[in-house]
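ok here's Oxidoreductase, seq below lol
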Amino acid sequence: MSKKIVVLGAGTGGTIISNNLRRHLPEEWEITVIDRDDNHVYQPGMLFVPFDLQKTGTLTRSRKRYILPGINFVIDEITHVDTDKRTVKTKNHSFPYDFLVICTGCKIAPEENDGLMEAWGKNAFTFYSIEGADLLRQKLKEFDGGKLVLDIAEVPFKCPVAPIEFVFMADWYFRKKGIRKKVEIELVTPLTGAFTKPKASAVFGESAKEKNIKITPMFELNEVNGKEKYIESVQGDRISYDTLVIIPTTTGDEVISNSGLDDGIGFVPTHLNTLQALKRERVYVIGDATNVPTSKAGSVAHYEADVVVFNIMAEIHGIKPEEIYDGHSTCFIVYEKGTSSLIDFNYKIEPLPGKFPLPHMGPFSLLRETKANWYGKLGFEWLYWNVLLAGRHLGMPPTLVMAGKEIG
Ligand SMILES: Cc1cc2nc3c(=O)[nH]c(=O)nc-3n(C[C@H](O)[C@H](O)[C@H](O)COP(=O)(O)OP(=O)(O)OC[C@H]3O[C@@H](n4cnc5c(N)ncnc54)[C@H](O)[C@@H]3O)c2cc1C
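and the structure came out like this:
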C-alpha cells in the first residue's frame, strides 16, 4: 500500500475528517484534501442574516486556517473520480489513493425549478446562499405587509429544520417591527408536516399554529410564476404570494454524477451503517453527499466522521469495517431571538423530550423551547470553528444516547 488518503471537499465534513484522520494516523500516511476554493462558510449563520442578526462578512473564513499541518490542502476543481483505478482527477492534477472519502456536499439548483429564474431576486429569494440571504435581508427590511410564503421545492434538502426556523423567526421579526398583523406567513412543503419525523412534526406544527403560521403539507412544486406571483403544485393547486422564500431543488455536485457514482439524483449510494460507498472498495462517504436517510446537517457529518475514521483504521489493520453509524443527528430549532428548541434522533428513534448532552442535567432541553437552548445555538458557532472542525471529540459517542430521554 502506498498509504495515501484523498478527501474530496474541505467543507464541514471534509475538514473534520481530514483533521481527525491526521490525529489518528502516523506521518507515513499522506492525507490530501481538495476543494475548489479557500472559502469555508459557516452555513447555519445564513439563517440569521435575513433578520439582521448576523453579518455576512463574519460567515466566511479561510479553509487553510482550519486544516492541520501535515495535511496536503489542494485548491482545485475535482473533475473525475475513477474508483476502479483509484484515482481522482482535478483540473490541474491527478491523485492516486488507497482510501477515498467523499465529502462534496450538496447545493441548491434554482435553474431546475420551472419559472424560478425569472422571479429570482425580484419576488423570489433564498437564504441557502450568502448572497441570497443578504438580498433577502434587504427585501425583509422594506417589507411592510402582505403574504410571505416559504416553499420547499423538493426532498431531499439541506438542514430540514432551517425552513421551520425561518418562518418562526419571520413571526418574531414582524412582531418586533410592529407589523405582524399585516403579514400572512405560510410554510409550503412536500413533507406531510413541518418536519421529516412525525412526532417532532406535530410539536412544531402546534407551535406554528400558536404563532399563526399556516403549514401546507404534501405540496410538490411544479412551477413558480413570478409575474402573477403564485406557485403551482404538480396536482395543479396554486398558492399566491407577495414574497416567496424558496429552498430550490437540491442536488449533489456534478463530479459525482459525471463519475457515475450517483443514485440518479446526484447523491452517492452509501451503506447506512458502515458509510462505505456501495459496490466500491475503500471509498467512504459522509455529510450531505450521501443518500443515507438522515438529516443533511453538520452534526451528522461530525458523527459520521468518527465512524469513518474508525472504519478506515480497521481496514488498514485488515479488519472488516463495522456497522456502527445509526443515523444520529442533533439540531437546534430557533423559535425566536432568545429561545430555541433542540432535537436528537437517529434512523429509528424519533426526537424525544429530555435533557442533552448530560442525561437528566442538560443544560439543554430536548423538544422544548428554552433560553439555555438559544445560548447553545449561539455558542455552537464558536464550538464549530474551534472544536468540531479540528476533528476533536466532545466526549460523546457518534451514536444516539438514550439516557436522559423521556420515553412514552
Ligand atoms: C441555511 C442553513 C442552515 C443550516 N443550519 C444547520 C444547523 O443549525 N446545524 C447543522 O448541523 N447543520 C446546519 N446546516 C447544514 C450544514 O451546514 C451542512 O449539512 C454541512 O455543511 C454539510 O457538510 P458537507 O461537508 O457534507 O458539505 P459542505 O460543508 O457543503 O462542503 C462540501 C465541499 O465540497 C466542495 N466541492 C464540491 N464539489 C467539488 C468539486 N467538484 N471540486 C472541488 N470542491 C468541491 C465544496 O466547495 C464544499 O466546500 C445548515 C445549512 C444551511 C444551508
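fwiw The chain has three domains: 4-107+251-316, 108-250, 329-388. kinda neat tbh
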